Amino acid sequence: MTDDAERTVNLRPDDSAGREGAAVAPAEPADSQGSASRDGSAARDGSASRDDGGHVYGRSPRSERTIGRDLLAAGFLAVVLTALGVPAAMLWQVATPRVEFEVLEGGWASIETYPSGYVEGDLAFAGIGLVLGILAAAFAWAAMRERRGPLLLLGLVIGSIGCQVVAWKIGAKEWQQFWDSVERAPVGAHVWRPPSVLFVELDPAAAWAALKVGNLTTALDSLQLGALAVMALAATFTYTVCAGWSRRPSLRTDAPE
């Protein structure tokens, strides 16, 4: 081979590389290499920011929603609200003005001709229930986001009624102690009547006895909640309004819109 032929072969390295079966890849520009490295690092970062369950760190994983867990949350809420009946009764007894009575020979009489304390007891009881119902619904909506739904609303209603029933029973006990003290008080003594809920007729035993004989009207007459239903109505209304403004059909904040 002459010198001119050798120089021609050296000027064509692609042909020689192709003949040897090992083609050389062209070098990538600097920009493409930088973007490739950035994509690789982003992919590594993305894979590192996820756990084995496919959840991105920084987000709370969505818990499985079952009827059993919803019932457990609703029962817990009902128990907590029912326990609030004790401080609610104390607040009611302190905030409501009492009616003054004077013990007479063979009986007793109020100092005022038409004391307003009779009605103020029911109004204060209903007002406390109204505020507690709104606060309870707002707390259940905000603190129990993963359990929002009809079962939680049921627990809210049952707990609200239980709260006011407990407060009413404590007031009835105070009422009975008052009349016992009146009977033992000497003539001319002044006693102060504690607040009580007048417009309530709640006797589950009588209602059940009436239902067993098929008397529905008498059963309903024995289940007149009156002011005992104020907290439940306020809680239901507040919770329903919150649900109506929700953008998600499931009402859960971690569910897609």
TrEMBL record:
Disulfide bond recorded as keyword: no
Residue ranges, annotated region (Disordered): 1-62
Keywords: Membrane, Transmembrane, Transmembrane helix
Annotated transmembrane regions: 71-95, 123-144, 151-171, 223-242
Coiled-coil ranges per UniProt: none
Domain of life: Bacteria
Biased composition annotated in UniProt, kind: Basic and acidic residues: 1-18
Protein's name in the database: DUF2567 domain-containing protein
Organism expressing this protein natively: Glycomyces algeriensis
